Amino acid sequence: MKNIAPIKICIVEDDALILKSLQQVLNNAEGFQVTGTFFSAEAALEILKDHCPDVLLLDIDLPGISGIEAISKLKHLQPELNIVMLTVHEESELVFSALRNGAVGYLVKGSSSKFLLQGIQDVYEGGAPMSPSIARQVIASFTPQTEHVLSDRELEVLEKLSSGTNNRQIAEDLFVSTNTVKAHIKNIYKKLHVNSRAEAVSKAIKKGWI
Question: Which of 21, 39, 41, 53 could form a cystine bridge with 10, CB 3.0-4.6 A?
Protein backbone atom coordinates (compact mmCIF):
# COMPACT_ATOMS: atom_id res chain seq x y z
CA MET A 1 0.00 0.00 0.00
CA LYS A 2 2.55 2.59 -1.07
CA ASN A 3 1.54 5.94 -2.53
CA ILE A 4 3.55 9.03 -3.42
CA ALA A 5 1.44 10.91 -0.89
CA PRO A 6 -0.75 9.46 1.86
CA ILE A 7 -4.43 8.90 1.16
CA LYS A 8 -6.24 11.77 2.87
CA ILE A 9 -9.30 10.63 4.79
CA CYS A 10 -12.10 12.42 6.62
CA ILE A 11 -14.45 10.66 9.03
CA VAL A 12 -18.02 11.50 10.00
CA GLU A 13 -18.85 9.53 13.16
CA ASP A 14 -20.77 10.65 16.24
CA ASP A 15 -19.40 7.99 18.61
CA ALA A 16 -16.24 9.44 20.15
CA LEU A 17 -14.71 6.06 21.02
CA ILE A 18 -15.24 4.65 17.53
CA LEU A 19 -13.91 7.86 15.99
CA LYS A 20 -10.77 7.75 18.13
CA SER A 21 -10.22 4.08 17.26
CA LEU A 22 -10.57 4.77 13.53
CA GLN A 23 -8.13 7.67 13.76
CA GLN A 24 -5.55 5.49 15.48
CA VAL A 25 -5.88 2.67 12.97
CA LEU A 26 -5.61 4.98 9.97
CA ASN A 27 -2.91 7.32 11.22
CA ASN A 28 -0.75 4.41 12.38
CA ALA A 29 -0.92 2.75 8.97
CA GLU A 30 1.63 3.69 6.33
CA GLY A 31 0.12 5.62 3.45
CA PHE A 32 -2.99 6.86 5.26
CA GLN A 33 -3.70 10.19 6.94
CA VAL A 34 -6.83 11.44 8.70
CA THR A 35 -7.22 15.10 7.77
CA GLY A 36 -10.59 15.80 9.37
CA THR A 37 -13.12 14.34 11.80
CA PHE A 38 -16.72 15.37 12.36
CA PHE A 39 -19.45 14.38 14.80
CA SER A 40 -22.25 15.40 12.41
CA ALA A 41 -22.98 15.70 8.71
CA GLU A 42 -23.68 19.41 9.16
CA ALA A 43 -20.17 19.98 10.52
CA ALA A 44 -18.68 18.03 7.63
CA LEU A 45 -20.68 19.99 5.06
CA GLU A 46 -19.41 23.27 6.47
CA ILE A 47 -15.73 22.31 6.26
CA LEU A 48 -15.82 20.21 3.10
CA LYS A 49 -16.99 23.18 1.07
CA ASP A 50 -13.32 24.15 0.89
CA HIS A 51 -11.56 20.86 1.57
CA CYS A 52 -11.92 17.63 -0.39
CA PRO A 53 -10.23 14.53 1.02
CA ASP A 54 -9.49 11.48 -1.09
CA VAL A 55 -11.96 9.36 0.86
CA LEU A 56 -14.77 10.16 3.30
CA LEU A 57 -15.92 7.51 5.79
CA LEU A 58 -19.55 8.25 6.62
CA ASP A 59 -21.79 6.76 9.31
CA ILE A 60 -25.56 6.53 8.80
CA ASP A 61 -26.89 7.18 12.31
CA LEU A 62 -25.92 10.78 12.95
CA PRO A 63 -27.49 13.63 14.91
CA GLY A 64 -29.39 15.93 12.57
CA ILE A 65 -28.96 14.99 8.92
CA SER A 66 -28.52 11.24 8.47
CA GLY A 67 -25.61 9.82 6.54
CA ILE A 68 -27.96 8.76 3.73
CA GLU A 69 -29.30 12.31 3.37
CA ALA A 70 -25.82 13.79 3.58
CA ILE A 71 -24.43 11.87 0.60
CA SER A 72 -26.14 13.92 -2.11
CA LYS A 73 -25.38 17.18 -0.29
CA LEU A 74 -21.71 16.26 0.00
CA LYS A 75 -21.54 15.19 -3.65
CA HIS A 76 -23.12 18.50 -4.65
CA LEU A 77 -20.30 20.33 -2.87
CA GLN A 78 -17.54 17.97 -4.00
CA PRO A 79 -18.62 15.88 -7.04
CA GLU A 80 -15.35 13.92 -7.06
CA LEU A 81 -15.56 12.96 -3.38
CA ASN A 82 -15.29 9.21 -2.73
CA ILE A 83 -17.83 8.41 -0.01
CA VAL A 84 -17.65 5.07 1.76
CA MET A 85 -20.39 4.18 4.24
CA LEU A 86 -19.07 2.75 7.50
CA THR A 87 -22.02 1.60 9.58
CA VAL A 88 -23.63 -1.18 11.59
CA HIS A 89 -26.61 -1.27 9.23
CA GLU A 90 -26.93 -4.08 6.69
CA GLU A 91 -30.58 -3.56 5.70
CA SER A 92 -30.93 -3.72 1.93
CA GLU A 93 -33.08 -0.58 1.82
CA LEU A 94 -30.30 1.49 3.41
CA VAL A 95 -27.59 -0.16 1.33
CA PHE A 96 -29.27 0.66 -1.97
CA SER A 97 -30.31 4.15 -0.84
CA ALA A 98 -26.68 4.92 -0.05
CA LEU A 99 -25.44 3.58 -3.36
CA ARG A 100 -28.16 5.36 -5.34
CA ASN A 101 -27.31 8.64 -3.62
CA GLY A 102 -23.67 8.38 -4.65
CA ALA A 103 -21.72 6.31 -2.13
CA VAL A 104 -19.00 4.24 -3.82
CA GLY A 105 -18.47 1.74 -1.01
CA TYR A 106 -20.29 0.19 1.94
CA LEU A 107 -18.37 -1.32 4.84
CA VAL A 108 -19.83 -2.78 8.01
CA LYS A 109 -18.43 -1.72 11.37
CA GLY A 110 -16.58 -4.53 13.05
CA SER A 111 -14.59 -5.34 9.93
CA SER A 112 -10.91 -5.95 10.57
CA SER A 113 -8.43 -3.08 10.37
CA LYS A 114 -6.80 -4.83 7.42
CA PHE A 115 -10.13 -5.03 5.57
CA LEU A 116 -10.85 -1.36 6.28
CA LEU A 117 -7.44 -0.23 5.04
CA GLN A 118 -7.74 -2.36 1.92
CA GLY A 119 -11.21 -0.96 1.29
CA ILE A 120 -9.95 2.61 1.47
CA GLN A 121 -7.03 1.72 -0.80
CA ASP A 122 -9.44 0.10 -3.26
CA VAL A 123 -11.74 3.12 -3.48
CA TYR A 124 -8.73 5.43 -3.86
CA GLU A 125 -7.69 3.34 -6.86
CA GLY A 126 -11.15 3.45 -8.41
CA GLY A 127 -12.78 0.41 -6.82
CA ALA A 128 -16.05 -0.03 -4.94
CA PRO A 129 -15.32 -1.83 -1.65
CA MET A 130 -18.11 -3.69 0.10
CA SER A 131 -18.33 -6.02 3.05
CA PRO A 132 -19.15 -9.59 1.92
CA SER A 133 -22.72 -9.49 3.27
CA ILE A 134 -23.37 -6.24 1.38
CA ALA A 135 -21.80 -7.52 -1.84
CA ARG A 136 -24.12 -10.55 -1.72
CA GLN A 137 -27.16 -8.28 -1.49
CA VAL A 138 -25.99 -6.25 -4.47
CA ILE A 139 -25.31 -9.35 -6.55
CA ALA A 140 -28.66 -10.85 -5.56
CA SER A 141 -30.45 -7.72 -6.76
CA PHE A 142 -29.28 -8.51 -10.30
CA THR A 143 -30.31 -12.16 -10.15
CA PRO A 144 -33.45 -12.82 -12.24
CA GLN A 145 -36.32 -14.09 -10.13
CA THR A 146 -39.58 -15.69 -11.11
CA GLU A 147 -42.70 -13.69 -10.40
CA HIS A 148 -43.94 -16.26 -7.89
CA VAL A 149 -40.79 -16.52 -5.82
CA LEU A 150 -42.78 -17.32 -2.65
CA SER A 151 -44.83 -20.44 -2.01
CA ASP A 152 -48.57 -20.16 -1.40
CA ARG A 153 -48.04 -20.76 2.32
CA GLU A 154 -45.31 -18.11 2.49
CA LEU A 155 -47.65 -15.65 0.80
CA GLU A 156 -50.29 -16.46 3.41
CA VAL A 157 -47.79 -15.75 6.17
CA LEU A 158 -46.72 -12.53 4.47
CA GLU A 159 -50.32 -11.36 4.20
CA LYS A 160 -50.71 -11.97 7.93
CA LEU A 161 -47.52 -10.01 8.61
CA SER A 162 -48.82 -7.10 6.54
CA SER A 163 -51.81 -6.79 8.87
CA GLY A 164 -49.58 -6.74 11.95
CA THR A 165 -50.44 -10.25 13.13
CA ASN A 166 -47.89 -11.75 15.53
CA ASN A 167 -46.28 -15.18 15.12
CA ARG A 168 -48.50 -16.87 17.69
CA GLN A 169 -51.70 -15.67 16.06
CA ILE A 170 -50.43 -16.59 12.59
CA ALA A 171 -49.70 -20.10 13.87
CA GLU A 172 -53.23 -20.42 15.27
CA ASP A 173 -54.83 -19.07 12.09
CA LEU A 174 -52.88 -21.45 9.86
CA PHE A 175 -53.03 -24.42 12.26
CA VAL A 176 -49.25 -24.77 12.47
CA SER A 177 -46.63 -24.34 15.19
CA THR A 178 -44.90 -21.04 15.93
CA ASN A 179 -41.61 -22.68 14.91
CA THR A 180 -43.11 -23.40 11.49
CA VAL A 181 -44.18 -19.77 11.19
CA LYS A 182 -40.65 -18.64 12.11
CA ALA A 183 -39.23 -20.97 9.46
CA HIS A 184 -41.58 -19.50 6.84
CA ILE A 185 -40.57 -15.96 7.81
CA LYS A 186 -36.89 -16.89 7.59
CA ASN A 187 -37.46 -18.28 4.09
CA ILE A 188 -39.37 -15.16 3.07
CA TYR A 189 -36.47 -12.95 4.19
CA LYS A 190 -33.99 -15.11 2.32
CA LYS A 191 -36.00 -15.21 -0.91
CA LEU A 192 -36.77 -11.50 -0.91
CA HIS A 193 -33.27 -10.49 0.27
CA VAL A 194 -34.61 -8.46 3.18
CA ASN A 195 -33.91 -8.31 6.90
CA SER A 196 -37.17 -7.18 8.47
CA ARG A 197 -40.93 -7.65 8.32
CA ALA A 198 -41.41 -4.09 7.13
CA GLU A 199 -39.01 -4.63 4.22
CA ALA A 200 -40.68 -7.92 3.27
CA VAL A 201 -44.16 -6.41 3.30
CA SER A 202 -43.02 -3.32 1.40
CA LYS A 203 -41.37 -5.42 -1.31
CA ALA A 204 -44.40 -7.70 -1.65
CA ILE A 205 -46.74 -4.72 -1.98
CA LYS A 206 -44.54 -3.16 -4.68
CA LYS A 207 -44.63 -6.43 -6.62
CA GLY A 208 -48.40 -6.67 -6.20
CA TRP A 209 -48.28 -9.98 -4.32
CA ILE A 210 -50.40 -8.74 -1.42
Answer: 53
In the DSSP assignment, the letter for residue 130 is B
pLDDT of residue 25: 96
Do residues 115 and 161 share a domain?
A: no
pTM, two decimal places: 0.69
Contacts of 50 (CB under 8 A, 6+ apart): none
Per the structure, how many domains does the chain have?
2
**Domain ranges, residue 94:** 7-141
Q: Per residue in 69-101, pLDDT tens?
A: 999 999 999 999 999 999 998 888 889 999 999
**Per-10-residue mean pLDDT, the chain, length 210:** 79 95 96 96 93 95 94 94 93 89 94 94 95 85 64 90 92 90 91 89 85
Closest CA to 60 of 29, 98, 110: 98
Written in H, E and C, the secondary structure of 45-107 is HHHCCCCCCCEEEECCCCCCCCHHHHHHHHHHHCCCCEEEEEECCCCHHHHHHHHHHCCCEEE
The Cα–Cα gap between 60 and 86 comes to 8
Q: How far is Cα 159 from Cα 174, in angstroms, rounded to an integer? A: 12
Q: Do 114 and 37 share a domain, yes or no? A: yes
